[in-house]
Amino acid sequence: KESAYPDDLSGGMQQRVALARSIVIEPEILLLDEPLGALDAKVRKQLQNEIKRLHKELGLTFILVTHDQEEALMLSDKIVVMSNGKIEQIGTPNEIYDTPKNLWVANFIGRTNIFSTIALSEDTILFESNEIKICSSNYNLVKNEKINVVIRPEDLKIVDSGNGFIRDAKIIDVIYKGLMYDIKCIHNNNVINVESIHNFEINKIIDITFDPNDVHIIKEIENE
């Protein structure tokens, strides 16, 4: 391919050549601005793995600009989440995904379920009609304080009626995504997204439960 003109190369090969030309001059910092945005899914995944390998082997600082949240989580050691030129949160991929600072970050990075409720004490919240003791004391909750409970779809589990924290939800849609089923439920006019390895029938009435370890709290004041 060394004799080929740029227009003769595929999109993936063009990006590989551009990356090689940038690396050969041995920069201290490499800026990648949406490098994979125009590629199809298979080639994008291949180049993501290639960038991750090069970053590890060369020890360069890569600054990657992307709107692809999954790409950011996969490739980064540290993520800066920005909105309208303002930094919303800085952290590791795990910190950004598991402990978003505010509702904007929670909604932007991956899918999530958000429930509005109140705190009953410094380590207990009201969820539906349940008193749930949360596992972190870092929230400094105050009795009757308004809070948002954030739970990712993969952390919710569908169970038989009478066994969940959320009672009598109705399954309204099921989409098979290869490894998981994307299940949409309705409860008190609120849509709840659940990911499960099990398939369920549409219109089935179910309960939904979760491990309190997977609950993240965002205070109302943090979104003002």
Short description:
By secondary structure, this protein is α+β, with helices and mostly antiparallel strands. It contains 5 helices and 14 strands.
Describe the 3D structure.
The chain is α+β, with helices and mostly antiparallel strands and 224 residues long. It has five helices and 14 strands. It has helices at residues 11-23, 41-58, 69-75, 93-98, 103-108, and strands at residues 29-33, 61-65, 79-83, 86-91, 113-121, 124-127, 130-133, 146-151, 156-159, 166-176, 181-187, 190-196, 205-210, 216-219. The strands form four sheets. It has a five-stranded antiparallel sheet with strand order 7-6-5-8-14, with no helix packed on it. The chain has a five-stranded antiparallel sheet with strand order 9-13-10-11-12, with no helix packed on it. Strand 11 (181-187) and strand 12 form a beta hairpin. The longest helix has 18 residues, at 41-58. The termini are far apart. The model has no long low-confidence stretch (mean pLDDT 89).
